[in-house]
Amino acid sequence: MNVCVLGGSGFVGTELVIRLALAGHWVRVPTRNLTRAERLRVLDTVELLVANVHEPRILSQLFSACDAVVNLVGILNPRRGASFDAVHTELAAKVMAAARTAGVRRVLHVSALGADPRAPSRYLRSKAAAEARLRAAPRSELSHAEPAVTIFRPSVIFGPGDSLTNRFAGLLRLTLGCLPLARARARFAPICVFDVAEAMVRALGERASAGQTYELCGPQVMTLAEIVRLTARVARLPCRIVPLPDPLARLQGLAMGILPGKPFSLDNFRSLTLDSVCREDGCRRLGITPRPMLAVLPTYLEPRRPAAFA
Ligand SMILES: NC(=O)c1ccc[n+]([C@@H]2O[C@H](COP(=O)([O-])OP(=O)(O)OC[C@H]3O[C@@H](n4cnc5c(N)ncnc54)[C@H](OP(=O)(O)O)[C@@H]3O)[C@@H](O)[C@H]2O)c1
Questions:
Q1: Distance between Cα 7 and ligand 1 center (Å)
Q2: Which phi-psi region, left, alpha or beta, contains residue 89 (left: φ > 0; alpha: ψ -120 to 50)?
Q3: Is 156:222 a contact under the CB 8 Å cutoff?
Q4: 75 and 117 together in one domain
Q5: Are 30 and 4 in contact (CB under 8 A)?
Q6: What is the pLDDT of residue 306?
Q7: What is the band of 287 on the pLDDT scale with cuts at 50, 70, 90?
Q8: In 189-299, which ranges are E strands?
Q9: Is it the case that residue 143 has pLDDT exceeding 50?
């Protein structure tokens, strides 16, 4: 297949693109900055190019001769010139329109568990609005075949290069193990990036996945505090969690939301007021047995032993 992967340079995207290339597909990856896609340069069947994916004409060109399009573009917090509406909702609508024009047969879209028009955070509401735009009927009946849409709603994703366990490990190092934690009892079912990528590869190969939505969860439901403790244990770091009461956690969100890079925000706090656990087993429907955290975390978090002298 010829597949265009928007967001192919990111954490999940890189894993997906590598798998697609190794499976013999030809993959096109637009990015805003080629240095972000460094790891994909070595793959012969991957075409990297700088492109503005928000420009409808450019999207149509990117999708030309593609059998499938995957949209992984997402942000956790808005930045200057990149609102949730623009990056999640409007882009999804543009992807759909360009896919119709280019005659693309499949559109795979990564949303998030908890996406709902009534969700407490703007992040989750914009993800729900994006899903609605993907499912909306075309405005005109111009004889283009309608692409089949498949939506994935993962819980929080872990794996080499994630911004979950790596961030907690970094914070624990910085604070010598003392971590004030918002929503420490929020529940997640962390899923490995390898399983998320595999779900998409399988869906591409299965006609029956057209029109489906898959919730993707790992095998264990864990609180945020349990995820931090496991991270600390594997990375061999000291760990003392100080659970923050909600009013303080809101203040933390407000204060950190104005720091460069917005490490945490009020909107992130609001997302955490919902548990991120599955109501259905999308992994099983795709024939995937998701890995537990403990099977993967040591591969990238465990401190390396010094190499033995020769
Ligand atoms: N990671 C998780 O735990 C998790 C959980 C649930 C859902 N998701 C969803 O899964 C998808 C992939 O997540 P990820 O963790 O792989 O994200 P990521 O590592 O932050 O990658 C995001 C990708 O989106 C592109 N992007 C970001 N802002 C953009 C903008 N304004 N315009 C155009 N492109 C932009 C980036 O491309 P360039 O910088 O190369 O241009 C990058 O390739 C996202 O939709 C995310 O919401 C992730």
A1: 6
A2: alpha
A3: no
A4: yes
A5: yes
A6: 66
A7: very high
A8: 191-192, 213-216, 222-223, 240-244
A9: no
Which amino acid does the sequence have at 125? Answer: R
User: Mean pLDDT throughout 293-305?
Assistant: 93
Atom of ligand 1 nearest to the CA of 13: 16
Element (H, E) at 183: none
CA of 84 to the centre of ligand 1 (A): 12
Residue 156 CA, closest ligand 1 atom number = 3
Angle at which helix 11-22 crosses helix 193-205, to 10 degrees, equals 50
pTM higher than 0.85 = yes
**Shared-domain flag, residues 107 and 207:** yes
Same domain flag for 246 and 122: no
Pocket probe for ligand 1: among 72, 88, 152, 275, the residue whose CB has the most ligand atoms within 8 Å is 72
Would the CB of 12 count as within 6 Å of ligand 1?
A: yes
* pLDDT of res. 82: 96
- Which atom of ligand 1 approaches the CA of 53 most closely? 33
Specify the pLDDT at position 81. 87
Report DSSP state, residue 79: B
Q: H or E segment at 25?
A: none
Instruction: Summarize pLDDT for 28-67 with one digit per residue, the tens.
Output: 999 999 999 999 999 999 999 999 999 999 999 999 999 9
What is the residue range of 227's domain? 165-185+220-276+291-299
In angstroms, what is the span from residue 110 Cα to ligand 1's centroid?
A: 9
How many domains does one find in the chain? 2
Q: Check pocket membership of 13 for ligand 1, CB cut-off 6 A.
A: yes
Together in a domain, 12 and 138? yes
Judged against a pLDDT cut of 90, whether residue 304 lies above it is answered with no
Mean pLDDT of 111-130: 98
